[in-house]
Design a protein that fits this description.
The chain is globular. The longest helix is centred in the first third of the chain and has 25 residues. The chain is built from twelve helices and twelve strands. It folds into two domains: about 200 residues, no CATH class; about 120 residues, no CATH class. The N and C termini lie far apart (about 60 Å). The strands form three sheets. Strands 2-1-3-4-5 form a five-stranded mixed β-sheet, sandwiched between helices. It has a five-stranded mixed β-sheet with strand order 7-6-8-9-10. Helix 4 crosses helix 6 and helix 8 packs across helix 11. The N terminus is likely disordered. The chain is of the alpha/beta class.
């Protein structure tokens, strides 16, 4: 029971700071990461969950498969796209990473941590999300759970606190294989540009967009059908977008990303910062990013232009699409 408690504390304990994805990380710190081993936190089977699912053999197997699948897809993404560190990559369950940090034995590492905004990685979600094929219905379930985040962290000194170096917000709580590729590509691209380009600043990716926006002319923009309402049609969106565009299943977008298909771009609607409302609830500001399926480079951006009651609307309309193209 103690192990279960600490897993929840560990994963719930990191409420998201202001999202570092849209701010510039410290150049000296990023340069120093080259001398660190990347330690990737993985999932592990939780005893309490195994016991709860024992009367349901199919759900139990889905949970076990889900843990294994999550660990495999993050490993695939990291080993293919994280080319920054030169000291190697290691993998360790999150609870063991926490113990290592508390014992002051994590000095040789930089840590890739995953959590869910304002919450924790719920073991009950692992089977339904990762226990089978990541379909459109699974995508919808993951979206209903909130937003995930990957954070690059450095273990502290004697105080054993973690320093957040850079973070990438995700459009759903539980990332697909393609979302993991997106996150690792984003980290790699920002770190590379920061160290190679003079006076580089993220600044909402303005410089990247100025350089890359023209590439949209030769790409088909893929918008996931779960990112639009039932009232929004392709014809509506194309009124303010002059280049090729399709509304497709998420599976097609994932295939384009995993195949690094240069003929496509896609849209991620991601959180950029958090703040507490008067009631104490977590409030998120959102931003649209248009991303190259080939290499994760940012091609365009837009701010959601509408409010949906007390929330910023997260779906895509012609108002945002119009801003994807720079005149």
């Amino acid at each position: 029971m103690k192990k279960i408690f600490w897993i929840l504390v560990l994963q719930a304990g990191i409420l998201i700071p202001a999202f570092g994805q849209f701010t510039t990380p410290d150049k000296i710190t990023v340069n120093n990461l080259k001398g660190k081993i990347l330690l990737v936190e993985t999932q592990e089977e939780v005893t309490r969950t195994l016991m709860d699912l024992r009367p349901r053999p199919e759900a139990l197997q889905a949970y076990k498969d889900g843990v294994a699948n999550f660990n495999q897809i993050i490993k695939d993404a990291v080993e293919k796209y994280y080319q920054w560190g030169k000291k190697g990559i290691e993998y360790m369950p999150a609870l063991q990473v926490e113990k290592l940090v508390k014992e002051g034995k994590a000095g040789k590492y930089v840590i890739l941590h995953f959590t869910v905004a304002g919450s924790y990685v719920n073991p009950a979600d692992i089977g339904p999300i990762y226990g089978g094929k990541y379909t459109d219905s699974v995508r919808a379930l993951s979206r209903s759970k909130g937003y995930g985040i990957f954070i690059i962290q450095l273990p502290g000194g004697n105080d054993k606190k973690m320093t957040d170096v850079y973070s990438v917000g995700l459009p759903v709580a539980y990332p697909s294989a393609a979302d993991m590729v997106y996150a690792i590509q984003m980290i790699h691209n920002v770190f590379t540009d920061l160290t190679k380009l003079k006076d580089y600043e993220v600044k909402d990716f303005h410089n990247d967009i100025e350089k890359n926006n023209r590439k949209l002319k030769k790409k088909t923009l893929l918008i996931e059908n779960g990112q639009v309402t039932a009232k929004t049609t392709l014809a509506d969106l194309k009124k303010d977008y002059d280049y090729p565009m399709q509304i497709v299943s998420y599976e097609k977008i994932q295939d384009a990303i995993l195949q690094s298909d240069s003929s496509y771009a896609y849209v991620q609607v991601v959180p950029i910062k958090t703040s507490a409302s008067s009631s104490g609830n977590l409030k998120l500001a959102l931003r649209h990013l248009v991303v190259d399926a080939k290499d994760g480079r940012v091609l365009g951006t837009a701010k959601p232009s509408r409010m949906n009651y007390d929330k910023i609307a997260s779906d895509i309309t012609k108002k945002e699409v119009k801003d994807y193209i720079q005149e």
